Structure formats: structure tokens, C-alpha cells
Amino acid sequence: MQKPYSSFFRVASPTEWSRIYEGDSLAFKIELRHTTDPKAISAWLRIGELQAERIKLADFDKKKLTDALPAIQDVALRHPTNWLNLLQSICSSFGVALVYSPCLSKAPIYGAARWTKNKTLPLIQLTDRNKDYNSFWFSFYHELGHIRYHNKSDIFIDGLAEISPDKEKEKEADDFASRMLISDAV
């Protein structure tokens, strides 16, 4: 009989989970061992990966991402009733999986951006933390900035002070989000 952690995390044992998520594994370059609850955070991240597997995506295309920015801004400004589905559809058209994972109590995260499936699938994962429309959009654009500008090997999680981020890349993502929210310039 397969253990629950085996099928969920796709690991053979709790020891393997610790090696990947808490150790110095190159497969997971954030240091969850320095967080308050690495198990909750890794569970939240894994939930996003499982959600992303169900989305049909085009191949990633950075030019199409850039070309789609006005359509994304339109969704944010008009706020139609199906805005989240529209946003997910636009993102999938340029090859980015956008998932919405409810916040877990011991994983105080706003969002995350990373490349999964051997760095072939860009994934933006957002939560309902603070349950605020404006926070959602800033987080979305921030994570999209990471996908647009930064390395496939980088993993960005917003909301965890224990993980020391690359300040320059975080500023670049913040600046991108600010530009997208306060101007028509892309």
C-alpha cells in the first residue's frame, strides 16, 4: 500500500521528503528548513503543482506574454464576473500555468513563481491571503514579472521573511507590478 506522502509529494519516504525539501537539494533551491513550518509550505507548493497539471497550456512564449499584457490589464480594470477564468485562459495562451491555491494556516504566502517539470512549465501560484482584490493583482503581476525577467532555476515565494530573497530581482518584480497597475505602459 502506498503511503499518503508518497503519492502526494511523489517521494518514497519521509526521509526522501526531508532530503528534498529541508536539505541542500538542487531540486528545490529555497531553504524551507529556515521557515516556521516547511511541511505546510511544501504542501501548499505541491497543491499548486497538482493544479497546474490539469491545465492545458500552449508552449511558453515570452513575446506572447508581452503581447498579452494589455488584455490582462483590461481584465483587471473591467473586473468581469469570470475574471479569474479569463486571466487563467490568457496565461495558458502564452504557456504559463496560473493556479489559485487557498492559503494554508501555517504557510503565510501571497504567491509563488517557479518553473516545474524540469524547468519547462512556468507556474504562478496565488492565494487568498488578505482576501483583497488589489493585493491579488499586485501579487499576480509581481509573480508574472519573475517569470518574464528571471531565470528558470529561480524560485520565488512572497510572504516568507525567513527566506532571503534576491533583493534586486524582487525590486524588479515589484517595479513591473507597479508599472502594470498604475499606467498603461507595458
Q: Could you explain the architecture of this structure?
A:
The protein has helices spanning 4-9, 14-22, 38-52, 62-78, 83-93, 133-149, 167-182; strands at residues 97-100, 111-116, 121-126, 156-158. The chain is an alpha+beta fold. It has one domain (31-182). Strands 1-3-2-4 form a 4-stranded mixed sheet, with helices on both faces. The longest helix is centred in the middle third of the chain and has 17 residues, at 62-78.
Secondary-structure map with pairings?
Blueprint: H1 4-9, H2 14-22, H3 38-52, H4 62-78, H5 83-93, E1 97-100, E2 111-116, E3 121-126, H6 133-149, E4 156-158, H7 167-182
Parallel strand pairs: 1-3
Antiparallel strand pairs: 2-3, 2-4
Helix pairs in contact: 4-5, 6-7
**Shape from CA axes?**
globular
Question: For the residues shown, what is the average pLDDT?
Answer: 80
Q: Which runs of at least 5 residues are low in confidence (pLDDT < 50)? A: 23-31
Number of separate domains: 1
Q: Radius of gyration, Cα only, in angstroms? A: 16 Å
User: Main beta sheet: strand number and arrangement?
Assistant: 4 strands, mixed
Percentage beta strand: 5-15%
Topology as a string of helices (H) and strands (E): HHHHHEEEHEH
Structural class determined from secondary elements:
alpha+beta
Give the termini separation: 52 Å
Helix content: 40-55%
The order of strands across the largest sheet is: 1-3-2-4
How many β-strands, per DSSP?
A: 4
Helix count, DSSP H or I runs of 4 or more residues: 7
